[in-house]
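re: ur question from yesterday

yeah so i grabbed the chain u mentioned. its 251 aa long if i counted rite. heres the sequnce exactly as i have it in my notes:
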Amino acid sequence: MTGPARPAAALTVVTGAASGIGRATASALAEAGHRLLLLDRDATPLAAVAGGTGGTALAVDLADGPATDALVREALAGTPVDVLVNCAGVGWPADTAETTDELWETTLAVNLSGTFRMCRLVLPGMVERGRGVIANVASAGALVGLRRRVAYCASKAGVLGLTRALAADHAGQGVRVFAVCPGTVDTPWVDRMVHDEPDPEAVRRRMRERQLDGRLGSPEEVAGWIAFAVSDQGRFLNGAPLVIDGGLTAV
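ran it thru and got these structure tokens back, copy pasting raw so excuse formatting
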């Protein structure tokens, strides 16, 4: 599912574009005619994605807010941004007792503060031009509690709250902001997280079983919905979560 092609001059920024949902989203948007600026901290795979999509790669670590602000401003060089897709995210299995200050702060720095900073960078230009779309990738964990995901769920719930507030702030200004709440998706990040568990196969089985479809989603399934939702065909979606979770939050 993809939306209509974008005008050649339109610039779309995708964070977390080196792998997983971000990578699939970059590919889907490139197919729809978007001109891409792709951000990720992993420079080598990011360069490969940029090469495959015709986009421009910018290696940044969203945990370092001031450096990210400076690098993105320099890369944009005044170029208007019509679409921002915030896909960058981190997370580690940890319950409350296992959640160190460093884990908590890093998770929120990337997932919540990084999302906020990127929105803050592009919103003034969108408001000035009277058009723009922001898609913030949250999680089904923003809607329901997930075991041993304390910092992750808190950060993603924050992304959902941020999304609603931004949509309310900019209502009537030609800008819309929505969230995307995927269920468990088969990405390299999930592979790494499962690998760190004592019984990886048991964890993966529980992940499949908690979704009504009995399987993990694919990055391409989520990316297709994002590409549609940021297009003009998705223009009635604003201030709300787009839940693509295989039924995880239904029961």
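noticed a couple things. Helices lie at 20-31, 43-53, 65-76, 101-129, 150-169, 188-195, 200-209, 219-230. also The first helix runs from residue 20 to 31.
anyway ttyl
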